[in-house]
Amino acid sequence: MDALVETIDLTRRFGDKVAVNNLCLKIRPGEIFGLLGPNGAGKTTTLRMLIGLLRPSEGSINIGGWNMEIDSEQCKRLIGYLPEEPSLYDYLTAQEFLEFMGKIKMVPDDLLRQRIGEYAELFDLTKRLRDYIGAFSRGMRQKVAIMAALINTPPVLLVDEPLMGLDPKSQKDFKDILHERAQDGAAVILSTHILDVAEKHCTRVGILNGGKLLVAGSMEELREFSVSAAGTSLEDVFLKLTEEAEAAKES
Ligand SMILES: Nc1ncnc2c1ncn2[C@@H]1O[C@H](COP(=O)(O)OP(=O)(O)O)[C@@H](O)[C@H]1O
Ligand SMILES: [Mg+2]
After folding, report:
1. What is the β-pairing status of strands 212-217 and 204-209?
2. Percent of the chain surpassing pLDDT 70
3. Is the pLDDT of residue 229 over 60?
4. Does residue 237 have a pLDDT over 80?
5. Average pLDDT, whole number, for the chain?
6. 40 C-alpha to center of ligand 1: Å?
7. Which ligand is nearest to the CA of 161?
8. Whole-number pLDDT of residue 228
9. Of 41, 119, 138, 167, which is least surrounded by CB within 10 A?
10. Which pLDDT score is estimated for 142?
11. What distances in angstroms separate CA 73 from CA 59, 105, 182, one per listed residue?
12. How confident is the model at residue 240 (pLDDT cuts 50, 70, 90)?
């Protein structure tokens, strides 16, 4: 199958600042693509354009073969999104919020209740489903946001720094879920600055810096690309490439 997510010359400016610069990406079913880069590289801006929350300044986006500009409804239906800073409703219980999200995403009632139950069990939230989200810890809120992103088992899953605030067991469970979704044929984009996670869990990674994609490929390809860092970790490749990019900017 062709790419589930495609960006063509995707660019976003904020005033004079180019946050995302001519980005061309293709993510296929079954891939977990790691979008890496230092703070301010343009990861979140890229994801916000991919879900149709921000309009590109230039370029285009295709999701599942639909064009975001023309068929935004069809595109959005295919996407599950975990924002960097999820906005939840403090005055709803977790159960109410998740039912609300599921209904928006048109998940049939029976399936919806079943999924909420299963994920709550997995994330150890069963006993808290009837509590107000406003009383939840950071990690519990993150779990609710993850459940909301997964509620309609979307074929495109965009997750922005998803491990923030999660305890080790939940991190592991979440990573397992990403693999399961990819095995089912979903395309996953994982934005992170935790290189170990990308190295271990992503089928391909792309390194963004200053809005530009410096390189994209499998770990193997990245090591080849960065010859003097050959045989070393993603961290070495990452640091070498981003330092080179900074040096090129200054000269
Ligand atoms: N709404 C906005 N208005 C102005 N500048 C923004 C806005 N959102 C992001 N930026 C800028 O765009 C750049 C990329 O930001 P972001 O995509 O959040 O990076 P990352 O997620 O990789 O840390 C940063 O310089 C940031 O300050
Ligand atoms: Mg970000």
Report:
1. antiparallel
2. 96
3. no
4. yes
5. 92
6. 5
7. 2
8. 62
9. 138
10. 95
11. 19, 11, 23
12. confident
Instruction: Locate 176 and state its tokens.
Output: 């397992």
pLDDT at 208: 95
- The model carries a pTM of 0.93
CATH C-level class of 1-78+158-168+189-251: alpha beta
User: Backbone phi, then psi, for 166, in 5-degree steps?
Assistant: -85, 140
Decide: 120 and 129 in contact? Cβ < 8 Å: yes
Which of 195, 219, 191 lies closest to 35, judged by CA? 191
CA 208 to ligand 1: nearest atom: 22
Q: Which residues line ligand 1 (CB under 6 A)?
A: 14, 17, 19, 37, 39-45
147 has a pLDDT exceeding 90: yes
Domain boundaries of the chain, sorted by first residue: 1-78+158-168+189-251
Nearest CA to ligand 1 atom 5: 14
Q: What DSSP letter does each residue of the chain carry, written as one string?
A: ---SEEEEEEEEEETTEEEEEEEEEEE-TT-EEEEE-STTSSHHHHHHHHTTSS--SEEEEEETTEETTT-HHHHHHTEEEE-SS----TTSBHHHHHHHHHHHTT--HHHHHHHHHHHHHHTT-GGGTTSBGGG--HHHHHHHHHHHHHTT--SEEEEESTTTT--HHHHHHHHHHHHHHHHTT-EEEEEES-HHHHHHH-SEEEEEETTEEEEEE-HHHHHHHSGGGTTS-HHHHHHHHHHHHHHHHH-
In ligand 1, the atom with minimum distance to the C-alpha of 84 is: 21
Provide mean pLDDT across the span 96-104.
95
